[in-house]
């Protein structure tokens, strides 16, 4: 009795498919049992290993199907008699696990990479994708990439305990039936808008104000440009940061703290006071060709007088665009704003309108007197 017949197993050479049904060769009996498809690489019969194991019932796939990676390498020393030592456990390298029912995918399907980690998990019902599809990165972190209802793409949604929407994602088919994001995505306190080709065009983050009246208030907004032909990443073209909300203060959409605009090699960042809203300072790319310096402009809070000078420093996004609390500020290494600049603005904001006007008149008078003495 052969190994295959003893365990009701057959090799691919012992069966044939007719009309979508698998039969034992030279019979009209549909096959039931485990079908093992073996590789035929190498000259030694011992080099033949299973590359797939599929259960059948009445000629149709029914039960678990397993497909394995195959990469048999021969030893350089004894090419025709031994396998490469790294290939000893080749059968353990599962590529695909899939469940079938009466010839149709029905149940879990998993796909693995060659080192053994899972890269995709999905569920089928009567041969149709059903529910979310999960993809995994090298660290094992999973994400939802596609959601289906009877094989049709549908939005994926998650909700908070109180029933409010927490996560929403939408996809559509792109080139070669690859999924690309589309429309508005929501993920807690973050929303992302995509164009028709799956590129990010706008990302909005909100303050966590659930402890107040539940109204969402914008923390910051980023606008993007599509990648150019020589670059495969989206490019930030504008970033706007808003002042935080403290009850019972209501955030107005003009309560901008930081505004950064980029384009054609030019960058300009502006910092505003909140109440009253006034431009405090700005950093801007030098207009001189090939210059690596930046133009820093500061404004006097009372007279709006501006002072300009060049600097080698430009605030980066890694610092959170909070110019006042930038980590690692060093006046010795890189003087930035004028001395007492922030203190003056603090004093201005704390003053009443009458005090601001009085200080403005006094400072203008002093400036005129100094100009007169210079003459």
Model description:
This protein is 10% helix and 43% strand. It is elongated, with a radius of gyration of 34 Å. It has 3 helices and 27 strands. Strands 14-15-18-19-20-21-22-23-24-25-26-27 form a 12-stranded antiparallel β-sheet, with no helix packed on it. Strands 1, 4, 5, 6, 7, 8, 9, 10, 11, 12 and 13 form an 11-stranded mixed β-sheet that branches. The model is unreliable at 1-8, 72-79 and 327-333 (pLDDT under 50). The N and C termini lie far apart (118 Å). The chain folds into 2 domains: 1-154, no CATH class; 254-375, no CATH class. The chain is mainly β and 375 residues long.
Notable traits:
single chain; 375 residues; mainly beta; 2 domains; twelve-stranded antiparallel beta sheet; 3 helices; 43% strand; disordered N terminus
Helix content range of the residues, please? Answer: under 10%
Which strand order does the major sheet show?
14-15-18-19-20-21-22-23-24-25-26-27
Unreliable sequence segments: 1-8, 72-79, 327-333
Number of strands: 27
Number of helices: 3
